[in-house]
């Protein structure tokens, strides 16, 4: 039976969603389960006993990954930047070789690098959408739509937020409110359903005790102050991120820079293991009252540092998860700090851990609406988050454009001085 143009578009959208969802499941087992196995023994030991493991695993793991990245330079390019490159310059055609970057990103995450799974999942979803579009022989315009649809499905599967995936595609990947958005939404919904039906983790950031809505007085002055402070904090992180692109000498071969980066992150992880890998357990701990004000502040700085070192060394991975963790730590520090100063204004500081992710996503990623909806989806706290998130997230987003005119994805992901297709070494 010969399919019509609409039939091909629907078939490709559904197929892309299924593949993106299955890819999210596979990436979970590669990055999370393998990483948990590597560090399982060390996490149950005291400082002295876990020191060798926490230092050796990132150092040796990133040394081996660095060798692969240097030997196969195509594996170094992926994530949000490469998807944008494919949409803007290659008519939505994503080469199959980008799967290497997804695998390497999963391994960086598994050995403790401060990266995240969402960026590689965007790449994998876009690859699935592009390949499905070519398989179904859609038009050139539809191929662009399907690449965006696959990226949206990857986001939806990674963040467990189908509507957030659609919004992020609008905010970052150039989608428009037209008929094509329907195909993007179909793939996003399918990707979410496949991932959650297999892994069953629909609300990973749901607090143990659902917080109440914030008082009106808090909404009028504490929340705007939080938004402004988040914009400045996000700017500080972006400057640190940029600076670490030039710290390790570019004359060093890639494998050496990545190895040194792994050793430095491992050293931090000896004392602060919360900064290793994606860091989602840290968010859960903060939501459930397991982190003090002093520790929030300490982890905030060192998570920024570990992320900057990881990417500055030349390792690969996603930036969404570190942004969320940094946001949760900022929110915890701000919420508990304000509670110390004005207890009546912040009756439940745990809610600020969630709000911190919204405001920092707007500041660093420039994803205001998508960040708001994704965190609400991840936590299930729609009523408690939407109004303060709109206010604080909007302020953070607008100020951030004034103090740094690019999102973090507008920065070069490669260390300074190295051309995009130049072989490391």
Describe the structure.
The chain has 425 residues and is an all-alpha fold. It contains 16 helices and no strands. It has helices spanning 5-43, 47-71, 79-89, 99-110, 118-135, 140-159, 162-172, 180-199, 216-243, 254-271, 280-287, 293-312, 320-341, 350-365, 368-379, 382-403. α2 (47-71) packs antiparallel against α10, α14 (350-365) runs parallel beside α16 (382-403) and α15 (368-379) runs antiparallel to α16. Residues 413-425 have low confidence and may be disordered.
Q: Give the overall pLDDT as a whole number.
A: 90
Q: Which oligomeric state applies?
A: single chain
The radius of gyration computed from the alpha-carbon positions, rounded to a whole number of angstroms, is 21 Å
Number of DSSP helical runs: 16
Helix amount, in percent? Answer: over 70%
What portion of residues belong to β-strands? under 5%
User: Kindly, what is the distance between the CA atoms of the first and last residues, rounded to a whole number of angstroms?
Assistant: 53 Å
| Count of beta strands | 0
Profile the largest sheet.
none
User: Which blocks of ≥5 consecutive residues have pLDDT under 50?
Assistant: 413-425
Give the structural class.
mainly alpha
List keywords for this structure.
single chain; about 425 residues; mainly alpha; 16 helices; globular; disordered C terminus
């Amino acid at each position: 039976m010969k399919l019509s143009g609409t039939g091909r578009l629907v078939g490709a959208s559904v197929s892309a969603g299924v593949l993106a969802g299955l890819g999210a499941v596979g990436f979970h087992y590669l990055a999370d389960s393998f990483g948990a196995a590597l560090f399982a023994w060390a996490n149950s030991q005291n400082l002295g006993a876990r020191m060798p493991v926490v230092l050796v695993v990132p150092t040796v793991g990133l040394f081996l990954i660095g060798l692969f990245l240097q030997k196969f330079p195509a594996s170094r390019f992926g994530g949000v930047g490469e998807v944008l490159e494919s949409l803007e310059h290659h008519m939505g055609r994503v080469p199959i070789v980008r799967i290497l970057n997804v695998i390497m990103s999963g391994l960086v995450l598994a050995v403790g690098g401060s990266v995240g799974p969402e960026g590689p999942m965007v790449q994998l979803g876009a690859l699935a959408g592009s390949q499905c579009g070519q398989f179904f022989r859609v038009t050139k315009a539809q191929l662009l739509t399907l690449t965006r649809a696959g990226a949206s499905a990857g986001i939806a599967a990674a963040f467990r937020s189908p509507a957030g995936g659609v919004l992020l595609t609008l905010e970052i990947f150039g989608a428009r409110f037209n008929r094509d958005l329907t195909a993007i939404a179909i793939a996003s919904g399918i990707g979410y359903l496949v991932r959650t039906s297999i892994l069953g983790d629909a609300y990973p950031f749901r607090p143990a005790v659902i917080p109440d809505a914030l008082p009106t007085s808090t909404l009028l002055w504490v929340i705007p102050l939080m938004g402004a402070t988040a914009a400045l904090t996000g700017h500080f992180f972006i400057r640190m991120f940029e600076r670490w692109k030039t710290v390790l000498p570019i004359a060093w071969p890639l494998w050496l820079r990545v190895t040194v980066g792994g050793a430095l992150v491992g050293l931090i992880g000896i004392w602060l293991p919360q900064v290793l890998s994606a860091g989602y357990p840290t968010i859960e701990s903060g939501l459930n009252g397991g982190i003090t004000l002093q520790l929030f502040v300490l982890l905030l700085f060192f998570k920024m540092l570990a992320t900057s070192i990881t990417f500055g060394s030349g390792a690969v991975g996603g930036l969404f998860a570190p942004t969320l963790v940094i946001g949760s730590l900022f929110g915890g520090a701000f919420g508990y700090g304000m509670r110390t100063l004005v207890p009546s204004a912040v009756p439940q500081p745990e809610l600020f851990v969630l709000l911190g992710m919204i405001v920092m996503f707007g500041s660093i990623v420039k994803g205001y609406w998508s960040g708001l909806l994704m965190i609400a989806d991840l936590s299930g706290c729609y009523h408690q988050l939407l109004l303060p998130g709109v206010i604080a997230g909007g302020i953070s987003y607008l100020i951030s454009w004034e103090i740094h005119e690019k999102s973090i994805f507008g920065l070069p992901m490669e260390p300074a001085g190295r051309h995009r297709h130049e072989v490391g070494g």
